[in-house]
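Repro:
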Amino acid sequence: MQFRFVKKHFLSSLLFLTVFAVFSQQSIVDANVTAKTFHSLGNGIIKDTSTNKHNISQFAGQEIKLKEFLNDIVLSEIKKDGAFEEINRFFSEHSITGKNAHDFRTLEDYSRSLRTQKLITLNGEYVKSFGELIIANYLFCNSIRYEYEAHYKPTLRKEYSFNYRPDFYLPDTGQYLEYYGINRLGETAPYIDRSTYNKQIEDKRKLHNKEKTTCLELFYYDLQEDKLTDRLSTLLEQHNIEKKAVPHDLMLKMVVDRKYDTRLTKLLVTFLKHYKSNAKENSIDSLKLKSKSSRDKIFVKLFQNILMEYEKKLSLESEIDFEDMIEMATLKVSSGLFKSPWKYIIVDEFQDISRGRYFLIKALQNQVKRAKTYCVGDDWQAINRFAGADLNLMKYFKYYFGKSSIVKLNLTFRFNNKIAHLSEKFVTRNPSQFKKRIKSLKHERTPQVCLYWNNNDPENVLIPFLSALPKEVLDSGKSLQILARYSFNLPERHSTQLKQAQKIWLGNVLPPKTIHSSKGLEADYVVVLDVNSDFNGFPSEKHDDPVLNLVMPNADSYRFSEERRLMYVALTRACEKVYLITQPQAPSEFILELMEKEYFTERINQSATEGIDCPICKLDGNHGKIVNIKDNFYGCSNYPICNYRAASCNECEGGYYHSKDSSNPKLLSCSNSDCDSNAEKCGSPKCNGGVLVLKGGFNNKFWGCHLYQKTGCKYIKRD
C-alpha cells in the first residue's frame, strides 16, 4: 500500500528508509524508488566511494562476541599494576548502582528492590543497602577483616532489651562500624519513624560508651555527598586501622566469582554503542568535561582504555562496526564523494531514529536542491531509547529540519473505539506527548481492556486465566497473542503450558513475544503477563546506569515515560480485547491507574486483592503482606528486611497456612482455595505466626513451631 502511494505521487527518484527490513527490493517495481535500511544504505555508500575494502566487524550484531572480547580486556586491566588502583576502586565503590533506601516510598518497595537486585559484596555477603555494600567492598579491597551484622558482645545480650547487631565488626581491632540512614537534617527514609530511629542511634552510642567499645560512624549523607569512602578512609586512619591492597589474584577471583566483571562488561557494551552512534558529538575529552561524580570520572578513564583496545582490534582486522558504517557514510556524503540521486526521502519509524542516522539524512537532503524529506513516526510508540533512539528529533522536528508541516494520521483500522480511547488517555497523561485524537471504525459499548487478578502461581498463570474466560471467547476461533515485558516471563515456545493453552483456546495461539518485539504486529485478543509492581515487573523498576547519561539521549523527566509508551504499544496490538494480568499482592502502578474512574475497564477476580497481613510486620506498623516470594516460599512482602516465612502447605505445595475462621483462631487453613488442608497454630503466647509441624526422628516424633530456626520459638506439643 505504501509503494502504491509512492508510485502515484512521486515521479522523481525517491529513497525509502526504515530501521528494520520489512520489505524486499524485488517488491518495488518502480525503478525510481530505492528502499533500504540505514545499514544497507551506509554500506552501499561506502562501497561506491572507497578503494579500500572494509569488512563488517565480527562484533556487529553479535553482542555475545563483543561481551567476551571486552570482558577479556577488563580482566587484563585488573592484572596491570598501573591500572590496578583505579579498577580496584571502581569495583569496590562503583560497580553496583541503584536506588537507596531514601528513594523508596514504602518499606515494601525497598524490600522488593533488594529481592530482585541483590546486593552481594566482593566477600560474598548479602547486605541491605548500597552504603553497606560500598563499605564492605572497601574493607575487603584494603584487606581489613570484618563480620557483617555480628552480635554485639554476645555475653551481654541478655542484659539489654534489644538484640543489637552492629553493621560491621572488625575482629582484628575489636572495633565496630555503623552506617546510619539519616541525612544532614537527621531525616530518615519516608517509611521509617524519624524520632524512633534517632533515639536508637543515641541508645547505641550510650551502650558503646558504657561498655567502652569503639564504634566508627558513617551516615547516608556521606553517600549523598559522594564522600563515603573518603570519610571511611579518614576514620580508619584516625583509629590506626592498617590498610593494605588486596593481592591481584584474590581480587581477580572475587570479581569473577561475584560476576562483577560481567556487570561492568555489560555496561561497557551499552556505553560503547551509544558513544559511537553519536560519534560526531562525543569525544573522550567531552566526556571528561561532562563527568561530575567520582564514579563518572573513574569509568571514563577505564572506558578510554577499553575504547583504544577495541578500535585497535577493528583496525588490525580492517573492520568497521555498524556505528562506523553510518558515520563513514555521512562523511562521504558531506564531503561530496557520494552524489545523492534522490530528490525525495521517506523515513519510516522516525521516532526510533538516532542522532547518527539523523546526520546521514540531513547530509543527503543538503546535497540535492529543493530535496524533500518525509518522516513518518509515532511519538506514542517511542520505546527504543536503550538502542540509541532520540525522541527529541521528533519532538523538536522544526529545529532539526527547518520549515516543515505536520500531518496527523489519526484513523486506525486495527483496534476498536474503547481501546483507542483508553490507550490515548493513558499515554497522554504524560504532558510532553503530542496530543491527537485516535478514531476507529470499530465501535464497542462495553470495556475492551480487562484487568485480571491472578491468585495462582505467577509462573503458571496462563492456564487458570484461560480457563476463567467465557466459552464464547475461547471458541471464537480468533487469534491470541501472549506478551510480557521480559522474555523470561514468557512461556517457552514448546512448553507444556503453551500446548495446554492451545487446547483451551480453539483459535490460533501466536508465538509469545516481548512487547518490544510485538511492535507493528496485531492479534484479535492480547494477554499481557506479569503487570506487577516489581523490579522486573511492568513498569520495569530497572534503571539505566547513571553513567549512560554521558552518552545517551536526554530522557523524558515524566515518571516511567518510556514504560508508559511501551504499555500503549501492548494495548494497541489487540483488535478486539486486551487482558492485563497482575498479582493481587503487588499490582503494578499502571494497573492501579487503570482502576481510576476516568478509565473504562473490566475487572475479573478483583477480590483476590485483599491479601493477608504479615503477623510480624502488622505489629510494628509496616503492614507487610504474605506473598509468594519465589517458588513455594511464602513470606512477607517486606522480605528481606522482614524475615517472616509462612508455613507452606505440605499437601498441595501451592499455598500457606493462615487463620480463616475468627471463631477458632487455633485452626489454620491453606490459602489455596482448592486445598482443604488444615494445621494448628503454635501454642506459645509469645509466638507470632508460628504453625505446628511434625519434627523429630523415626522413634521420637513431636509437634514443634516452624519458626524455631527464625525466632527461636521452642514450643513443643506431644501427642
